[in-house]
Amino acid sequence: MKSKLNFIFICLVFSSSSWSIPTEYSATYSVKLKQADGLLTTKLSKQGELYSYEMITQATGIWKVISSGTVIERSTFKIEDTILKTEEYHLIDNIRRKPRESKAIFSWSTNNVSGFYKDREFKIELDKNTLSRIILQLQIMHAKERQIEMNSFSVLDKDELKNIIIIKEENIKEANVPYGKYKAIKISHQTKDSERINSLWLAPELNFIPIKLTQTENGKTNFEANLTQLNY
Fold first, then answer.
1. 128's torsion region: left (phi>0), alpha (psi -120 to 50) or beta?
2. What DSSP letter does each residue of 32-86 carry, written as one string?
3. 105 lies in which domain range?
4. Do 66 and 59 contact (CB within 8 A), yes or no?
């Protein structure tokens, strides 16, 4: 169930003091994955110069009886030379029949990222500004808030680097979610050679925190998450 939940960026030109997305917040989303219901919680925190971002997904309702586990993704990053630079990434997925785990360490001094996915070890040369896949969302938020043009990004997914391309941007006059009605900027991105399109609805009056997340494939919605709670 959760492989599709883990969906959702850039050379910046401002100093690290310009980081204006809240340094700490938590958001909760109601999730619909085809017939299944779930809950997604995200949390951004900061200790010293190190930021930590966490996403936790779990089933709800009758589906909780079938899938009682959780998917936990955590990633740390720093802001150096105006760039969000991933430090570590960790995935623990015990919602499946066969649990999986992944861990990666980004070594910028040696210009490589190393770790494991399931039982496969890897060591890959870093592209400039390579992100973990959950930090991608924060980079989009920050870049849009600073009005910086977005084009493409290198993202670590499982045990390989993938090229993520921004394919569309739309201004939404009014997006209605359980948390309220907001103007939003819908940004859609896609992995090269993939039919899946992931979209974020960023609300400027909520510091560009997403009020909705979706994944579509061949015109059909695989996944949708709507904001229900937000705490700064």
1. beta
2. EETTEEEEEEEEEEEETTEEEEEEEEEE-THHHHH---EEEEEEEEEEETTEEEE
3. 2-165
4. yes
- Position 13 scores a pLDDT of 27
**Alpha-carbon Rg for the chain in angstroms:** 17
What size, in residues, is the chain? Answer: 232
SS3 helix, strand, coil % of the chain, rounded to 5?
10, 60, 30
Q: Which of 61, 43, 161 is nearest to 106 (CA)?
A: 161
The chain-wide mean pLDDT, for the chain, equals 87
Count CB atoms within 10 A of the CB of residue 78: 16
- Here the tokens at position 97 are 């029949």
Name the region of 2 (left: φ>0; alpha: ψ -120 to 50; beta: rest).
alpha
Say which residues have a Cβ less than 8 Å from residue 127's Cβ, sequence separation at least 6. Answer: 154, 161
144: in domain: yes
First-to-final CA distance of the chain = 29
Q: Is residue 112 part of a domain?
A: yes
CA distance 194 to 72: 24
Closest CA to 10 of 213, 168, 123, 147: 147
pTM over 0.85: yes
pLDDT at 105 over 50: yes
| φ and ψ of 142, to 5 deg | -65, -45
